[in-house]
Amino acid sequence: MKAIILSAGQGKRLLPLTYEAPKCLLPVADTRPVLELQLQAFEQCGIRSVSVMVGFGAAKVEAFLADYSSSRLTIRTCYNPFFETSNNLATCWLAIPEMTEDFILLNGDTLFTPTVLQRLLAAPPAPVTLTIDQKAAYDDDDMKVSLNGGCRLKAVGKTLPSATVHGESIGLMRFCGRGVTTFRQALDAAIREPEALDRWYLSVLNSLAADEHIDTVSIRGHWWAEIDTPTDLAKVRAHFAALSPAATVAS
Fold first, then answer.
1. Cβ contacts of residue 10 below 8 Å, gap of 6+?
2. pTM of the predicted model over 0.85
């Protein structure tokens, strides 16, 4: 299984920290950036091929990857020339040539312990499996999910009515078998819509959920974080600062 990381955006909500450096290169654990920790988690869980979608600061990301030392990972980059004017649906669509086999899709601003990825990889076979977390309350920025009994996805989006919300997507999912082809075809159809450049790729899963069986796996109780704001970044840095050096490697 391979992995695709969507890291084309600048992360404007983190300005001025991302004035020159893309969000994925912000240091979070000592000097180690977001992207390095993501790659290490993939290595620990047996992923051997990673495609990184780049855009803002692409040369800096590629320079970092050229210096990244790993005997177990094959890493390549793909460029989104429309990163300034598009949302991540376009980046995901441009990744279609990388979707040639079963794969993991990861947002470039999501961090997690390897146990989170292990739970996703160990989930029962399904064309599409969405990793979710569950908590007492959800805010406007959460990518909320609604389940149709058990673990099956009914809807995903930021504006779902609170009474229908059963969790939130953490930006990590698995595509297997016919799910790969189904997602590729749905992306190709979605990018032709007039509003495509303003859409999130999860809107494609929301549309597919009506007819396709999309599973979810809960990682409740396991640490993960999404870095959108300076507050998010401070919390993540505090998390790693509180870990022992040995524990930091595994997180």
1. 18, 22, 23, 55, 56, 57, 83, 84
2. yes
